[in-house]
Write a structure and sequence with these properties.
Layout: E1 6-10, H1 15-31, E2 34-41, H2 44-47, H3 55-76, E3 85-91, H4 94-105, E4 109-113, H5 127-135, E5 140-143, E6 164-168, H6 173-189, E7 192-199, H7 205-222, E8 233-239, H8 242-253, E9 257-262, H9 267-275, H10 277-283, E10 288-292
Parallel strand pairs: 1-2, 1-4, 2-3, 4-5, 6-7, 6-9, 7-8, 9-10
Antiparallel strand pairs: 5-10
Helix pairs in contact: 4-5, 8-10
Length: about 290
């Protein structure tokens, strides 16, 4: 049984991080988890450590810290579970502060927006989010502005409705760990679950049907028989480049959430992360839960 006891939600007060907070508090309610809401104030001294800055700038950043605390309080003011939300304001570089805080608190999940407040972040995945995704020791849910908005602000108790979950597998150990999250989330939200595998190396024509049948059989064996008691499980096999087929399936299926297993944090794994998971997060229309082994 999947246990999520602490959820970290870093916010910079952009529309993406506010949307991520909706997901974080929904997940916290479903799993009875503590929600840690974090904002990082990045002083100029952390960016340019060898330069001296006038005291006036230190006062500016002190005011930013006070303002951040007020904004965090406002974010949770309408949350019925606000007593279970802890607020933190830290100083330093955002990725380092987020990763260190997640580690020190033993966070089971990080939920954050894919884009930040900077203009360039609107054209690429935010640099902070990308660094956290690459180095985090726990799963990261990257939330972007979806093509179809299934967040219901009027429903304060349940702001997020997850009805269709897409789980992408390559049958590796990393995918096996991610499957635990897919099954658990499907049960918590009573969502339809689609199990997808993409064949990149297409077998010869004579073997194609046999190959597709074998993959379908392996997909059907992933979900335990009792999964049908809490969700509708379907399987899908596509042929082509994995990230392209995943993106296409997300659109066709109107998936509310994509779940993928990713490898570790060494140089080779980072290159692999960039080839598939990174593109699905950057180019897709739905939030992506990246689960590390």
């Amino acid at each position: 049984m999947l246990r999520i006891e602490k959820i970290l939600c870093p916010v910079d007060f952009s529309e993406y991080s506010v949307k991520a907070y909706d997901y974080a508090r929904s997940l916290a309610r479903h799993y009875g988890a503590k929600l840690l809401l974090q904002h990082v104030v990045q002083p100029l001294t952390s960016i340019y450590p060898y330069y001296a800055f006038p005291d006036a700038l230190n006062e500016v950043f002190s005011n930013l810290e006070t303002s951040a605390k007020q904004q965090l309080a406002e974010m949770i003011s309408e949350d019925p579970r606000n007593g279970a939300v802890q607020r933190f304001v830290h100083k330093g570089t955002a990725p380092d502060c987020i990763l260190a805080f997640a580690m020190s608190q033993g966070a089971d999940l990080i939920v954050m927006g894919t884009h930040g407040r900077h203009g360039f972040d609107h054209f690429t995945m935010g640099s902070v989010t990308e660094k956290v995704l690459r180095k985090s020791h726990c799963p990261v849910l990257a939330v972007r502005k979806p093509a179809h908005d299934f967040i219901h602000p009027v429903d304060v108790e349940e702001p997020v409705q997850l009805k269709k979950i897409l789980f992408c597998t390559d049958f590796s150990d990393h995918s096996a760990r991610a499957l635990t999250y897919a099954l658990s989330l499907a049960m918590e939200y009573n969502a339809d679950l689609t199990l997808l595998h993409v064949l990149e190396d297409v077998p010869a024509t004579d073997d194609l049907q046999a190959g597709l049948g074998e993959v379908t059989r392996r997909l059907e064996e992933l979900a335990p028989p009792e999964a049908g008691d809490w969700c509708n499980v379907q399987t899908a096999v596509r042929i082509g480049r994995p990230y392209q087929q995943i993106l296409q399936m997300t659109i066709e299926n109107e998936s509310d959430l994509v779940i993928m297993g990713v490898r570790g944090r060494n140089a080779v794994d980072l290159a692999l992360f960039g080839s598939t998971t990174h593109r699905v997060i950057q180019l897709g229309t739905s939030p992506v839960l990246a689960v590390h082994l």
